[in-house]
Design goal:
The protein is mostly helical. About 50% of the residues lie in helices and about 10% in strands. It is built from three helices and two strands. A two-stranded antiparallel sheet has the order 1-2. It is globular. Keywords: Membrane, Transmembrane, Transmembrane helix.
Length: about 70
């Protein structure tokens, strides 16, 4: 699976995902991000976003938005 994810530092809400293969919202993106999750708060965020049933791009934007605003 080939895909590029570009997240500008100055604007985390502007995310561009270019996919040569369709990335399923509940599979690949959550799977990739879940591998790097260490804190309980992050696990709750992922579950809440997964329950929204968003498309791949909207899902990634929402995960980033919630992660940036969550307390450390």
């Amino acid at each position: 699976m080939n895909y590029d994810v570009y997240i500008p530092v100055h604007s985390p809400s502007r995310v561009v995902v270019r996919a040569s293969t369709y990335i399923s919202a509940t599979g690949s993106i959550l799977g990739i991000l879940a591998k790097h999750i260490k804190m309980t708060q992050d696990e709750k965020i992922v579950q809440q976003v997964r329950d929204l049933n968003l498309g791949p791009l909207a899902l990634l934007v929402e995960l980033i938005r919630r992660h940036k605003t969550s307390p450390l």
